[in-house]
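Run log, item B.
One chain of 206 residues. Sequence copied directly from the ordering sheet:
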Amino acid sequence: MIRVKKLKKAYGRVTVLQVDEWRLRPGSNAVLVGHNGAGKTTLLTLLAGLARPTSGAILIDDSAVGLRPAREATTFVPDQPALFDDLTVQEQMLYVAKLNGESEPTGFSLELAERLDAEALLTRFPQAMSKGQRQKAGLLVGTARPFKVLLLDEPTTGLDATSRLALIDTLSEFAENGGVVLSSTHDPELIERATEVVEIAAGELV
């Protein structure tokens, strides 16, 4: 589902990420671990098509990142979700769904709202939310469209214990049903449930 070959990201003469060859197959619930600044977020933004590699190739669902099939297969929730402050969470979910040709948000996002005890947030505006509530809102909006690959940057940060466990269970089930999850995290419980742990140090997979 994800294939990386000879990937390099550099800023001028400074190489911040270099991956010779790596892949994730359907059914993977993988985590990226490493110190802050190791390259985890850089790898996620490259996979999401939000940054361009200096060289190398990335394929998502047999399509080059940046092309429409890869974009349709992938959704990304950053550690600080980008939300519209003047739209309710429900309105944003519907907006994202319709932009992607759907008449309503995915069943995944609606079930996630119930599991995270976030249904009361649907009619609220993000500007009045706490960090944990904004994290939940970002997860709901990010999963409101169909996807095969779910990329998450520190997804459990700010969540209460019950919501953390509910999210971890949901991610595991999505992978068990053939999807791919890749999360950057320091959360020991998320790491423990992963099918694959990928350590990044100084921009390289170790």
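Observations after the first pass:
- The radius of gyration is 16 Å.
- The mean pLDDT is 95.
Flagged for discussion on Thursday.
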